[in-house]
Amino acid sequence: MSENLFCEGNQITPAYKDGWYRSFKGYPKVNKEVWDMITKFKKSPRKLLLFFIEYVTDDEEYASFLTRDLLNGVWNG
C-alpha cells in the first residue's frame, strides 16, 4: 500500500521525520456500517490502529497513515 522513497544516509524515527517520503494509494472504500464503527473508535486511537492493521491492511505504516489522517480530520469517509 505504501512506497518509501529513501534519502540516502537518513535514519528512521518514530515520528516519521526521517527523510523518507511516503506515498500512499489513498483511503479504502468502506460502507456505512464500517464507517460508523471507525468513527466510534476515534475515541480510542489504539483500537482504531489495531482495527486498520487487522482488518483493513497488514501494513502497519499504512494503518498509521489512516489513523493519523482520520484523527486529524483529513479523511472524512
In short:
The protein has 77 residues and is mostly helical.
Task: List the defining traits of the structure above.
single chain; 77 residues; mainly alpha; two-stranded antiparallel ribbon; 3 helices
Largest sheet: 2 strands, antiparallel
What is the percentage of strand-forming residues?
Answer: 5-15%
Strand order of the largest sheet: 1-2
Assign a percent range to the helix content.
40-55%
How far apart the termini lie comes to 18 Å
Rg over CA atoms, rounded to whole Å, is 13 Å
Structural class: mainly alpha
Number of strands: 2
Uncertain stretches: none
The run of helices and strands is: EEHHH
Average pLDDT taken over every residue: 76
Domain count: 1
Shape: globular
Individual helix count: 3
What do these coordinates show?
The chain is mostly helical and 77 residues long. It has one domain. Helix content is 44%, strand content 10%. The protein has 3 helices and 2 strands, in the order ββααα. A two-stranded antiparallel sheet has the order 1-2. α2 crosses α3. It is globular, with a radius of gyration of 13 Å. The two termini are 18 Å apart. The model has no long low-confidence stretch (mean pLDDT 76).
Ordered list of secondary-structure elements with their pairings:
Blueprint (H helix, E strand, L loop, with lengths): L1 E4 L15 E4 L7 H10 L3 H12 L3 H12 L6
Antiparallel strand pairs: 1-2
Helix pairs in contact: 2-3
